[in-house]
Amino acid sequence: MSDVWPVPAPPLVSPTAAALLSILFTVVYVLPFYLSAATRPSPQLTRDAPSSIRARVRAVTSSCIISTILTLVVLHQSGGFDAAQILRFLGLWPVSPLDTARTILLVAILFAGPLFEYGIVDGHWKDWLVGRELYQTLSSWIGYRNYVAGPVSEELIWRALVIPIHILAGFSEKRIVFLTPLYFGIAHLHHLYEFRLTNPRTPLLIAIVRSLFQFTYTSLFGFFAAFVFIRTGNLYSVILAHSFCNWMGLPRLYGRVGVEAGEPIGPPEKADGQSTDPPIQSHGVGWTVAYYVLLVAGAVGFGYQLFPLTESSHALPVVPGTW
């Protein structure tokens, strides 16, 4: 490994410097959202407005360029890496379609239940085959933000830039996996302010709980993404996994399949109690049982396949640790 990767011993960057740079990257990413009227949320301008999304994408692009340049300087001057080694540290080269496919398979196993509901029960599998839903989704600015600009920029900052700096600082694999995603989770806390602006009637406690919940699941995904990035050295894998998870959303944890969670099964009623439209199509209970069986099986399968499907010869050179 030492012929390809100069092993940093002693650490080439101090832990304090690694933390400060990670905080700087987080601030540089989020702060521009509030420096311009075009990107700053207000009761009249939500973060989902096309003009706001376009302005934020431009701001994020600039932030990524600044943070990348800083990281390149650190890797070259502190680590003494050449261009090829820097590309490997950032997870940009070599490209391994097999590692990417194995990572997506792992995520698909985890979401076996939701894929079954959305594809089979709700009948979207035909749209998947012809790519209709993908085209429609990416044709909107919200879709472009959620599935392209967001995953690319966030994985570049909090995986490709933050993790190599922590490797230079001598952090162990386990510490990197469980520490660096916290910066990623913290970067989403500003949504509390945005939510309060656009939903002023929502009680503060509910808004805080919502924000903490978002911090929790973004950090959980960050643990997984950091783990995959270290074990595969492949930025493309975590970007696609991020897009896939954004597309799937949180899985259904209660209710029958074929209807919205919490929605009563039966025909809608008029004010006088008489039904109007045709009844909601309800599937048999067997479909719901199959969904929850797949949901549990997917979680178990994900645990069993986590290490085998992320095994790669392109792993990054971190201090090993037991799991």
From TrEMBL:
- Where is it localised? Endoplasmic reticulum membrane
Q: Which reaction does it catalyse?
A: Hydrolyzes the peptide bond -P2-(S-farnesyl or geranylgeranyl)C-P1'-P2'-P3'-COOH where P1' and P2' are amino acids with aliphatic sidechains and P3' is any C-terminal residue
- Indicate how the chain sits in the lipid bilayer: Multi-pass membrane protein
Q: Which domain of life is it from?
A: Eukaryota
Task: Report the EC code(s) recorded for this entry.
Answer: 3.4.26.1
Can you cite a GO biological process for this protein? CAAX-box protein processing
Q: Does the keyword DNA repair apply?
A: no
Q: Which InterPro entries does the UniProt entry name for this protein?
A: Rce1, Rce1/LyrA-like_dom
Top-level EC class: hydrolase
- Among the Pfam families in the record, one is Rce1-like
* Entry GO CC: endoplasmic reticulum membrane
Which keywords has UniProt assigned to this entry? Answer: Endoplasmic reticulum, Hydrolase, Membrane, Protease, Transmembrane, Transmembrane helix
- Transmembrane spans: 12-35, 55-75, 95-116, 176-193, 205-230, 289-307
What region holds the CAAX prenyl protease 2/Lysostaphin resistance protein A-like domain? 140-248
Extract the GO molecular function terms from the UniProt entry.
Answer: metalloendopeptidase activity
- Family in the record: Belongs to the peptidase U48 family.
Annotated protein name in UniProt: intramembrane prenyl-peptidase Rce1
